[in-house]
TrEMBL record, chain B:
Part of the FGAM synthase complex composed of 1 PurL, 1 PurQ and 2 PurS subunits. This is Phosphoribosylformylglycinamidine synthase subunit PurS. GO terms for cellular component: cytoplasm. GO terms for biological process: 'de novo' IMP biosynthetic process. Its EC number is 6.3.5.3. Pathway: Purine metabolism; IMP biosynthesis via de novo pathway; 5-amino-1-(5-phospho-D-ribosyl)imidazole from N(2)-formyl-N(1)-(5-phospho-D-ribosyl)glycinamide: step 1/2. PANTHER family: PHOSPHORIBOSYLFORMYLGLYCINAMIDINE SYNTHASE SUBUNIT PURS (PTHR34696). NCBIfam families: phosphoribosylformylglycinamidine synthase subunit PurS (TIGR00302), PRK05974.1 (NF004630). Belongs to the PurS family. It comes from Shimia marina. It comes from the Bacteria.
């Protein structure tokens, strides 16, 4: 599996995400936001957490319009895979690759703690290592993770089984407890919790490892 | 020439910051504040002849996230 991790000014989970991919056995290339092309033959693009461009204007809005994101959009439109975590999820909604938007947390506070996530769909390359209904423990660290979609769009996400993860105890006011959603072709996942921060015993938990392993299996058999 | 863009959360999208301001006003003794919505104002210095249609395009592409925000453009 060839992975690329995008680095924006203000990204701070880029190396963690790269290490999680590497530990699963992937070849990882770091890509700068000003680059105009992804490396040849990339299977999956990681869009990391952090505070790209200082969260100016809106979280992810400036990053979504950077040169590399034009390549990311083309990669996704060709059927390529992408994983956006935290600020990466915000960026993916701003590009329009994923529906909805992330608002300020309902309690207005920045929240940094480990939360329970229920696997709402195991029918994605990202969640195939879990079973539907599994509860995993993964850290969150965000100020703007309050997911919003219209009622109409929510019904569509449910009909199409595109809600990947829900919070067992909603920390931020997200509509329908949503923590992560996939694109219509199920190849782009955005989630606020950080699976790459639950990928080593030193992290205090390894529930995120199954995601990176499942991705690896996906490309090993493809 | 100048343009001013007002960006607000759409009606129906909960504004937790506005709600916090409303509570704070109440605790300062200002009664009767029934709602507060907080938004942003973006001032643009533009080349002469820039049209409102262009500013609207800027709003659609970057200045507002139309999933959750509405915008209003004032030219001049």
């Amino acid at each position: 599996m060839k992975a690329a991790v995008i680095v924006f000014p203000g990204s701070n989970c880029d190396r963690d995400l790269a290490v999680a991919f590497e530990q699963a056995g992937a070849d990882v290339t770091m890509v700068w936001h000003k680059d105009t092309a992804l490396p040849e033959g990339v299977d999956i693009v990681g869009v990391p957490g952090g505070f790209s461009f200082g969260d100016y204007l809106r979280c992810g809005a400036i990053a979504a319009n950077s040169p590399i994101c034009q390549s990311l959009i083309k990669h996704a439109e060709r059927g390529g895979y992408a994983l956006g975590v935290c600020n990466g999820f915000q960026i993916l909604t701003e590009t329009g690759l994923l529906p909805g938007a992330l608002r300020r947390n309902a309690g207005l506070k920045y929240i940094c703690r480990t939360v329970g996530l229920e696997v709402a769909s195991a029918d994605t390359a990202f969640t195939a290592g879990y079973s539907k209904g599994d509860v995993v423990n993964v850290p969150i660290a965000h100020h703007d993770g309050n997911y919003f979609v219209t009622d109409e769009k929510l019904a569509q996400l449910r009909d199409e089984d595109r809600i990947a993860f829900t919070y067992t105890d909603n920390p931020n006011g997200s509509v329908a407890d949503i923590a992560g959603v996939v694109s219509k072709n199920r190849r782009v996942l955005g989630m606020m919790p950080h699976p790459e921060r639950a990928a080593d015993t030193g992290h205090g938990g390894t529930d995120g490892v199954a995601m990176f392993r499942a991705l690896m299996d996906q490309f090993a058999t493809a | 020439m100048k343009a001013r863009v007002y960006v607000m959360l759409k009606n129906g999208v909960l504004d937790p910051q506005g709600e916090a301001v409303r509570h704070a006003l109440g605790s300062l003794g200002f009664d009767g504040v029934e709602g507060v919505r907080q938004g942003k104002v973006i001032e643009l210095d533009l080349a002469e002849g820039t049209t409102e249609a262009t500013v609207t395009e800027m709003c659609e592409k970057l200045l507002a996230n139309t999933v959750i925000e509405s915008y209003r453009v004032e030219m001049g």
